[in-house]
Write a structure and sequence with these properties.
By secondary structure, the protein is an all-alpha fold. 76% of the residues lie in helices and 0% in strands.
Length: 135
């Protein structure tokens, strides 16, 4: 599997992992009688700060997965993996790093690190698009 395809599968798997964590956390609250299954706010803030951050980290993944996925799909379908292979795994590392920092803290420093990791992802996607367009 090419680095581009690996990064796409890795991004999807990371997104699935985050939703699994949400599900397990909520299931534990339901099974221990602390919350009814129909009483969860989609944003997660109703059951704690970590839950809110977990839901936001997951949402940030599904908000960005289509853009990254589209670029990688174009590269794979058109045989232009050379335009994405060198950067794809760096993107995945920045994506996972951003999520981990988001889950770990909301301090000013953590928010700055998270934003820097997001900028890295954005720049990588912009460069991939530029390369794919043949510019």
């Amino acid at each position: 599997m090419s680095p581009s395809a690996t990064a796409l599968v890795g991004f999807a798997a990371w997104t699935l992992f985050l939703v699994l964590m949400i599900g397990l956390y909520r299931a534990s609250l339901v099974l221990t009688g602390k919350r009814a299954s129909n009483q969860f706010d989609p944003g997660g803030a109703d059951v704690g700060e970590f839950s809110r951050r977990l839901c936001r980290a997951h949402a940030n993944c599904y908000e960005n997965l289509p853009v990254f996925g589209g670029l990688i799909a174009v590269a794979l379908v058109t045989g232009q993996q050379h335009a994405t292979d060198g950067l794809a795994l760096w993107f995945l590392g920045a994506r996972i790093g951003q999520s981990i920092v988001h889950l770990a803290s909301t301090s000013s420093m953590a928010v700055n690190v998270r934003f820097a990791l997001y900028l890295v992802q954005w720049m990588i996607m912009a460069l991939m698009a530029f390369r794919l367009l043949g510019a």
